[in-house]
Amino acid sequence: MDAKVTGIVSYISWVGWLVAFLAGDKEGAKFHLNQSLVLMICMTVLPIISAVAGFIPVVGTVITLIVGLCSLVLLVFWVLGLVAAIKEEEKSLPIIGNIQLLK
Known about the structure:
The protein is mainly α. The chain contains four helices and no strands. The chain has helices at 3-10, 14-23, 30-53, 57-86. Helix 1 packs antiparallel against helix 4 (57-86). The chain is elongated.
C-alpha cells in the first residue's frame, strides 16, 4: 500500500489501523497512523467512562451527556482526519492533534 491508501485505511477501524500499520507504508503515512491511533483510543475510552459513570445516579447522567457531546466532537475529528488523508495533507486534528504516540 502506498502512503495515501495507508493513511485512509488507518482511519477505518482498529482492524484497518492494524492492517495499515503492519502492511502499509509506515514512513509515508506515519502522521495519519498517529492521528488515527490517538483518535481511536479516545473513541474507545469515552464509552468506557460513560458506562462506569452511568451507575452514579445524578452525576452519571451529566457525565454521560458530556461524553455524548465529546463523542460527536470525535466524530467530526474523524471526518477531518479522513478528508485530510484523502487529500494527502498533514493537518493536525484540533485539541488531540499534538499527541505523539508513534515515533
